Amino acid sequence: MFRWKKAQDNPDVVPEKLESPINYKILSLILGTVASFQIYLYVAFPNADGPNLDLIVTIVSVITPVIASIAAFYVTKRYWYSKVFGKSYFALSLGILMNALGEVIYYILEQQGDVPSPSIADIAFLAFYPFAFYHLAKNIKFFKPKINIITKLFVIILPAVIIGVYAILEFAQTQGATTEFYLGLAYATGSAIILSGAILGASIFRQGILGVPWLILAVGLTLTTIGDNWYSYQGIYDQYTLISPVNSLWYAGYLVIAYALYKHKAVI
User: Which of 74, 96, 128, 204 has the CA that lies 20 to 30 A from 194?
Assistant: First the structure.
């Protein structure tokens, strides 16, 4: 019979089922806060330009991943000596922190008048994907799931479609395999793979103790990766602005990830 004290002594041992309901008030608060900020940007900067707009957007773009990273570090600290959770959540926390670092570097370069992309900021942004992939792979491998053929096809076809559509549109727009083409393709590939992995993780853990936290985590990662892909497509046609709603997907995604990590801490 499972005993909580024993699970704390061995964090990799988890019960098969534990009630951990979603607090929809928290999710509503997250969405309401993000929506309110987006509305503020529309009202205060209707032309997507104005004093301090860059600074305001950058501050929020740094704070939200930092919050998620701190939540991941907290889980890491609590379960550092476990076989899976400590290292995998440490990787996730580093990956998210890389996004915050990328925002800071991007802002500094922009203020100096340098071309923000491609730049060293892209190295920080792209670093998120291998860290996040390690987190997903480590957890999924530990639970040794039996994946049916339909699920296998889905996790292969989904990123292939996302990457293929982006590659076709970007290649047609740039009229060749330029640096911008390969950089955008790297973002599209990374985000597509993470999106697929998050959905796979949620489907694997849906019936167990990690079902609710993984579902929330999958939602958070899905929001951020949809944001990544949307941003990539906007980049193709030069449609991105600082008040673009794509930013809201990132803000909401990181805050949802932070909530998911809180739920992880509560059940493992």
Answer: 74
Which tokens hold the place of 27?
């999710």
Is the pTM of the predicted complex or chain greater than 0.70? Answer: yes
Residues in the chain where the model's pLDDT stays below 50: 1-9, 11, 13-18
Residue tagged 């009229």 (tokens): 175
Q: How many CB atoms lie within 10 A of CB 80?
A: 13
Q: Is the dihedral of CA 115, 119, 120, 122 positive or negative?
A: positive
What token pair was written down for 120? Answer: 């060293």
What one-character DSSP code corresponds to residue 13?
Answer: -
Instruction: Give residue 9's pLDDT.
Output: 46
Return left, alpha or beta for 14; rule: phi > 0 is left, psi -120 to 50 is alpha, else beta: beta
Distance, in Å, from the CA atom of 89 to the CA atom of 223, rounded to the nearest integer, reads: 19
Convert 219-247 to b/e letters by CB count within 10 Å (16 or more is b). Answer: bbbbbbbbbbbbbbbebbeeebbbbbebb
Calculate ∠ Cα 212-153-127, nearest 5°. Answer: 65
